Amino acid sequence: MSEWKILLTDGLSETGKAILKSKNIAFDDKNDIEKEELLSCIADYDALIVRGRTKVTADVFEQGKKLKVVGRCGVGVDNIDLEAAKQHNVAVVNAPVATTIAVAEHAMALMLAMVREIPKADSGIKAGIWYKKEIKGAELNGKTLGVIGFGHIGSTVGSYAKAFGMKVIAYDLIASPEQIKQHGGEPVTFDELLQQADIITLHVPLTDRTKHMINAGAFTKMKKGVRIISAARGGVIDEMDLLQALESGKVASAALDVYEKEPPTDSPLVRHPNFIGTPHLGGQTKEAQQRAAVDIVNEVLAALEGEPLQWRVA
């Protein structure tokens, strides 16, 4: 049995657990553990593997005296206090490419559901209503897609959109215009994207720079009848400003997979007739979760063993 001990708090695919078992790594699977219990037991572990639910706050690092690495089984690390990790010399790693296909496909699914009004058509059929004349959808072909965040996921969405005959323009906070071109996008400024896009899809992390980057001011620069999609992170869009834009008709429709508060049970936005919502399902495919589990387990073990890391974020 290895000297290492790992805590899993948000579940892990059996493919990841199989790797740990094959290497005789001790681990405890405490799915849905509450913060109080996490704080009381974290001192026993060398590594912690989480998804998006568990908040790895400064007090977790303070109590985790043996903690050497935190692994995020997925992309976003906004639920982990990166500054506290640095202060306690704890590595933070993620699995940034494992869910790329799943999230990109989900963004496309939202896009198609939105332009063809599939949820309304489906609910009508179930209620015995034949919306044959009432629903007149739109085509993606010939439309301009604005991709905000042209990394792994955003550029993959761009490639899918091109297959539908769309023009793809892109804005990224980090990638150079040359890199955007290499991945099939036409680089534009943020304002140019807002002004030109028929549909806007967001694929950026939640940071101080991206919080509420789509707000009332941004909506004023968009085309009337623009459509908005986000399968990125809640908080990138100001949801109350989006609701006002839907009510005014500036935004024809919106489809979100992520929200500032999850679940968004008391949000008037999700009840708007031109809104489509899904419950943070972007990376939730069997295939993506298997890839993510393998990637994060291997990365966490590399951190424990002092080997080079592919996806260290802090």
Class inferred from helices and paired strands: alpha/beta
Tally of alpha and pi helices: 12
Question: Under the CATH scheme, which class of the largest domain?
Answer: Alpha Beta
Strand order of the largest sheet: 8-7-6-9-10-11-12
CATH superfamily of the largest domain: NAD(P)-binding Rossmann-like Domain
Give the second-level CATH assignment, the architecture of the largest domain. Answer: 3-Layer(aba) Sandwich
Can you give keywords for this protein?
elongated; alpha/beta; Rossmann fold; 314 residues
Brief write-up:
By secondary structure, this protein is of the alpha/beta class.
Structure explained in plain terms:
- This protein is an alpha/beta fold.
- It folds into two domains: 5-98 and 286-304, NAD(P)-binding Rossmann-like Domain (Rossmann fold, 3-Layer(aba) Sandwich); 100-277, NAD(P)-binding Rossmann-like Domain (Rossmann fold, 3-Layer(aba) Sandwich), CATH 3.40.50.
- It has twelve helices and twelve strands.
- Helix 1 (14-22) packs parallel to helix 12 and helix 5 (100-115) crosses helix 7.
- The mean pLDDT is 97.
- Its EC number is 1.1.1.399.
